[in-house]
Specification:
Order of helices and strands: EEEEEEHEE
Distance between the termini: 56 Å
Shape: elongated
Structural class: mainly beta
Radius of gyration: 20 Å
Number of domains: 1
Number of strands: 8
Number of helices: 1
Length: 131
């Protein structure tokens, strides 16, 4: 796969990891981000990105795309364009300041089934009262 630099919540994606829940288990996504700033030839800091998180408990869609050229041995840009996405609810996000990046951000997203936990849904044949 051939990937271009991509962003999520305004910052560059460093890595991501997803776990798929089966049955009653929750699916989760963890995304590691960094603000990609750089210095120009004059030594001036150029601020290229700003992490703009979505509020906790709001829905989000994470998308990551690339070309499948390497497996097809086709020239760059002529192969199949593939997008992987995860739709869910923002659980939390954290900021870390370290030598590996200053700052680094981590965002955790879970599938929306947690919202429906404990909810009853009647689809047909309810004859009781509603209060």
């Amino acid at each position: 796969m051939i990937f271009n630099q991509q962003q999520y919540m305004g910052a560059s994606i460093r890595s991501f990891n997803a776990s798929i829940g089966w049955g009653g288990s929750t699916s989760n996504l963890s995304v590691n981000l960094v603000e990609d700033n750089y210095y120009n030839q004059f030594g001036n800091l150029i601020t290229g990105e700003t992490f703009t998180p979505i509020e906790v408990c709001l829905p989000t869609i994470f998308k990551f795309s690339g070309f499948n050229d390497d497996e097809l041995n086709l020239p760059i840009g002529t192969g199949n364009y593939i997008t992987w996405q995860f739709a869910g609810i923002v659980k939390n996000y954290t900021q870390e300041n370290s030598a590996n990046g200053n700052p680094l951000f981590s965002v955790n997203v879970s599938d929306p089934r947690e919202i429906l936990a404990g909810t009853q849904l009647i689809l047909d044949d309810y004859f009781g009262s509603v209060s």
